[in-house]
């Protein structure tokens, strides 16, 4: 009897506790496996504790826009307003940006690299992102200084910003410090800033130094027109680490090789039109519903996978 009491039955744990435990599982397992185990697990995984952090960035790089929007709607609705972190790449529609903003009351970290947002969209949603402390809008080629300014004016708690660009998108552009000036004017609390391959000058970087006294890390890889002498970062910034502007190769010796996963090992998720899956628990009349039109399969390879630009550090 004593030995048996040492083991707690998992189905007796309260749903909130189970939800926290389930966050250690992969997204695939939470969506397709856990709901099928038993009634209590299905209830727990449908609660908000499992969905406070949503990271589908790797998968979204290889997903059709309409399927990506469906996935985001499903997962964000599960969070019930408690979403704290969202990482997703390649969003295309204005409606999905609006949907994210409407559910951003608790959002602190937002990564939207390679997304098709415009200055107008940012102007419309920035006011609802006031609680975020970290934002990634890298490789978003349709936004500019006005969008960066709106972000800074509305996101007063912002401490981290990623605004990296692909070198092919900036190679032929003239020097422009307008984004650097917007950052300097509106984001005084920044500690972490990434501006790799931006067409900025030394003047823009110095303005950021002057107006962002808490800055600890600045990524200037590929910013070829920036020339900082050793005294610039040392004066008033003893803890500041500046990366670049010179790069060592396609993969820097800064951890990319360790952090970047082989896309051939990723799984792809396919939606099955018109199908629904139910787990019927007759004892309580409970139906643990697996979300509409969703099926997971493993990815065996991506054509031209090597062409994907590696994520920022």
TrEMBL record:
Stored InterPro entries: LRR_dom_sf (IPR032675)
Domain of life: Eukaryota
Signal peptide (UniProt feature, chain positions): none
Protein name: F-box protein FBW2
Source organism of this protein record: Pisum sativum
């Amino acid at each position: 009897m004593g030995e048996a009491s040492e083991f707690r039955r998992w189905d007796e744990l309260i749903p909130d506790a189970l939800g926290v435990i389930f966050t250690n599982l992969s997204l695939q397992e939470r969506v397709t496996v856990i709901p099928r185990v038993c009634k209590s697990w299905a209830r727990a995984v449908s609660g908000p504790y499992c969905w406070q952090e949503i990271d589908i960035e790797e998968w979204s790089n290889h997903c059709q826009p309409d399927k990506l929007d469906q996935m985001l709607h499903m997962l964000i609705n599960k969070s019930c307003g408690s979403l704290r972190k969202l990482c997703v790449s390649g969003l295309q529609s204005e409606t999905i940006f609006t949907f994210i903003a409407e559910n951003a009351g608790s959002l602190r970290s937002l990564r939207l690299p390679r997304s098709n947002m415009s200055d107008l969209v940012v102007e419309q949603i920035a006011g609802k992102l006031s609680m975020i402390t970290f934002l990634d809008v890298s490789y978003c080629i349709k936004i500019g200084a006005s969008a960066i300014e709106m972000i800074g004016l509305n996101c007063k708690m912002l401490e981290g910003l990623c605004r990296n660009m692909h070198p092919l998108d900036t190679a032929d552009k003239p020097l422009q410090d307008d984004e650097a000036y917007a950052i300097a004017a509106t984001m005084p609390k920044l500690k972490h800033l990434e501006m790799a391959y931006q067409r900025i000058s030394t003047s823009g970087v110095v303005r950021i130094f002057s107006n962002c006294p808490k800055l600890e890390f600045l990524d200037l890889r590929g910013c070829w027109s920036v020339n900082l002498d050793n005294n610039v970062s040392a004066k008033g910034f003893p803890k500041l680490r500046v990366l670049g502007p010179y790069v060592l190769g396609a993969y820097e010796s800064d951890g990319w090789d360790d952090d970047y996963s082989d896309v051939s090992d990723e799984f792809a998720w396919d939606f099955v039109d018109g199908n629904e899956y139910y787990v019927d628990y007759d004892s309580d009349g409970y139906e643990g519903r697996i979300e509409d039109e969703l099926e997971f399969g493993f990815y065996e390879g991506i054509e031209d996978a090597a062409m994907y630009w590696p994520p920022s550090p």
